[in-house]
Amino acid sequence: MRLFTFGTNRTTDGAFRGRAPYACLAAILAALLLAAFEKSAGAGEPDIVYARGTLGAWADPDGAGKPFAKLFVATRLRVIERRGGWLRVETRGWNREGAERVVYAFPGKRILTVALRRAETGRLNALDSIVDPETEITWNGVALEGWIEDRGVTPNLATIWEAAWDLFATRCTVCHQRRIPHHYTANQWVSLLKVMGPRTGLPKERQRLILTYLQHHARDTAGETKP
Ligand code: HEC
């Protein structure tokens, strides 16, 4: 009886021990799968950079000939490939029928991201379109790919905004108090900077940086900007 009990226990125990390696293996497999999944999720995460200033975009990573487009400061770029000092990037934005060469960050908000050379609009890939209910204008979502020099970008948008804020806080306060970015819309800032920009005496590129900063922190855009 005792032996039998012992035997039964041993059998149970043995069966248990027999399963243990499988349970263990399953746990290891699960851990490995999870690790692999996390790794692939990490690799699949978009590699995002931002234009530090006006950049040229080329069809090939050699800078030969004229760029087919200009990309403007703070334009969000997804890196597809890195080769030498070059990056193949994709940017997405919005343009209007009849004015396809000019691409903006948001529909109806004139935050310039791309200007294509004439006859280069065929490089734009059409995404979805929307109709602005206020103006009844159709805005077309577009994607554009090209090669840019990697020294022209930063992964850190905050450094671009810090530089812009410094200029805004020092150069736009010479004649009056510092204005509040979100007191005006992104499009109002375009008109305002046409007049105020040149008053700073700064080069055009610096004026554009201030404008872009103000537009991304305007009444109708703050919060839409992806960090
Ligand atoms: C050389 C002086 C000067 C500088 C520099 C200057 N402003 Fe002005 N700003 C003015 C004057 C004067 C006005 C009053 C309105 C006008 O001139 O039309 C004004 C008005 C404004 C207004 C109010 C406009 C309105 O109609 O509500 C805003 C906003 C503004 N400036 C923003 C800026 C920004 C941003 C900069 C920097 C890029 C800047 N200003 C640089 C002189 C200046």
Question: How does this structure look, described?
Answer:
This protein is of the alpha+beta class and 227 residues long. It has 3 domains: 1-45; 47-154, no CATH class; 157-216, no CATH class. It has 4 helices and 10 strands, in the order H-E-E-E-E-E-E-E-E-E-E-H-H-H. It has helices at 2-44, 157-171, 186-199, 204-216; strands at 47-51, 55-57, 69-71, 76-83, 86-96, 99-106, 109-116, 125-131, 138-149, 153-154. Strands 1, 2, 3, 4, 5, 6, 7, 8, 9 and 10 form a 10-stranded antiparallel beta sheet that branches. Strand 4 (76-83) and strand 5 (86-96) form a beta hairpin. Helix 2 packs across helix 4 (204-216) and helix 3 (186-199) runs antiparallel to helix 4 (204-216). The protein is globular and about 75 Å long. Residues 171-172, 174-176, 179, 192, 196-197, 199-200, 210 line the site of heme C.
List keywords for this structure.
227 residues, alpha+beta, 3 domains, 4 helices, globular, disordered N terminus, binds heme C
Unreliable residue runs: 1-18
Total tally of structural domains: 3
Run of helices and strands: HEEEEEEEEEEHHH
Number of strands: 10
End-to-end separation: 74 Å
Mean pLDDT: 86
Bound molecules: heme C
Q: What portion of the residues fall into strands of 2 or more residues?
A: 25-35%
Q: In one word, what is the shape? A: globular
Cα-based radius of gyration, to the nearest Å: 28 Å
What is the number of helices?
4
Helix content: 25-40%
Secondary structure category:
alpha+beta
The main β sheet shows up as: 10 strands, antiparallel
